[in-house]
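Lecture notes, unit on binding sites. The following record was shown on slide 14. It pairs a sequence with magnesium ion.
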Amino acid sequence: MTNPAIVANGLRKSYGDKVVLDGIDLSVPEGTIFSLLGPNGAGKTTAVKILSTLITADAGSGSLHVAGHDLTTEAQAARAAIGVTGQFSAVDGLITGEENMLLMADLHHLSKSEGKRVAAELLERFDLVEAAKKPASTYSGGMKRRLDIAMTLVGSPRIIFLDEPTTGLDPRSRHNMWGIIRELVTDGVTVFLTTQYLEEADELADRIAVLNDGRIAAEGTAEELKRIVPGGHVRLRFSDPAAYQNAVGSLSKATALDDDALSLQIPSDGSQRDLRAVLDQLDAAGIEADELTVHTPDLDDVFFALTDSTTATAGATVPAQPKETVR
Ligand SMILES: Nc1ncnc2c1ncn2[C@@H]1O[C@H](COP(=O)(O)OP(=O)(O)O)[C@@H](O)[C@H]1O
Ligand SMILES: [Mg+2]
């Protein structure tokens, strides 16, 4: 087993009497994408700033390690291993994209020729060659974000913090950015990604932590998180009307969805045990469906269940028929 790239124990941060992070625990394995998901003001940027050594955690925090280095005693070494793309662009609009890149190369003490080589390579990789000689202020939002990430990569960091990299981007630029993030990980880089978009965390992250009220409300894979929420179901579709009617009549928990489409659904958490029970019930009743699909709630359902304290405790107010995620 390799060491985790990022480990936080009991991470705390307050501003005055406002508690922003109230003891959060995180562990991010090397070469994975970890997503810290939370609404505006949840403390995502604060967590990124602390873990990337831009600000310090409160004294009452537990140990914090990044790239194997203790942040309280070896911040410098940790800093050498990471790259940060902040929520607000670090791009200087007055100079060109290329000049921004060369500036970063200087900051990383690359030689002039090495700096030029790295800048050219990254501008190419991020599809910015044509724009490279133009002032960055003329770039679109998506181009600025790409330049921002390209600048972050100049120092070849092993761990990259991306703070809301797609906020404000149009759908196409967002998909582009997703491609870029996936590519980073295939190169073995660890990505710590914050987002307000459930869809984005679902799309990209190996593990997701939901930040709410200064605490991690839930943590796991997208699939694990979806299973927390009731509302999953198995859907059965028939082509034979008689078989369909037979199923509606004999499955006590079944809800007829659509008589024309000959489909019905049965509540299920999607677990192996639950699916087996459903299949046993079908077998016992001699029912053979033409199609059986498992539908888990999507992350929106999870998010609302976890972050709205009234629904989290009541549980029953979570929508019984969540939206489908079509893959
Ligand atoms: N330097 C600061 N001084 C006082 N309050 C701050 C400071 N930085 C952040 N906060 C507060 O901490 C909370 C979390 O902020 P932030 O980490 O930026 O959230 P997010 O990135 O999830 O939107 C907010 O209520 C914000 O107002
Ligand atoms: Mg933020």
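Take-home: The CA atoms of residues 167 and 195 lie 8 Å apart.
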